[in-house]
Amino acid sequence: MPSEPAPADGEPTSFREKAKSWAEKHETAVRVVKAVGTTVGAAVALMVVKHVMTQNVTEYADDDQATEYAEGDQATEDDQDAKDKRRSPVRHSVAEHTRTLADGRVIPIPPYKRGGSSEDAGEDPDEVAA
Fold it and tell me: How does pLDDT run across 47-56, given as a tens digit for each residue?
């Protein structure tokens, strides 16, 4: 027994037609529900991303702590300061070679010296060793 009277042609109204009619009558409510659903979905997605990022940071922190423990407890404050500072590469000579550029040209690179600190820029490593 349908709660609504049958249409004039005698065929019952389909669910699709009823839903379409209801949505047309309540267009504002449908829009509000869509907006609320989108907002809630975005908030949940943001919370999930934040949670995953926090887990990754914690995971990396745990890895760092494990590495520190594996190195041993013999490290002193001076050793830690030395690790934190960047060391300059050892001064060395680079042999003559060729380099291929992005546009396909091949250019010769003459030999040059590389590395060392700015303090010993005027010193030749061969002279220092002698």
Answer: 999 888 888 7
Contact by Cβ (8 Å): 113, 120: no
Cα 80 to Cα 69, 71, 84, 85, 87: the distances in Å are 13, 12, 6, 9, 13
User: 109: number of CA atoms within 13 Å, CB side?
Assistant: 13
CB 64 within 8 A of CB 83: no
Number of Cβ atoms within 10 Å of the Cβ of 30: 13
Decide if 124 contacts 93 (C-beta within 8 A): no
Q: Which residues contact 93 (CB under 8 A, 6 or more apart)?
A: 111, 112, 113, 114
Both structure tokens of 23: 């949505």
Confidence at residue 55, expressed as pLDDT on a 0 to 100 scale: 81
What is the DSSP-derived secondary structure letter of residue 110?
Answer: -
Q: Give CB contacts under 8 A, 24+ apart, made by 65-74.
A: none
Contact 120, 128 (CB under 8 A): yes
> Backbone dihedral region of 47: left (phi > 0), alpha (psi from -120 to 50 degrees) or beta?
alpha
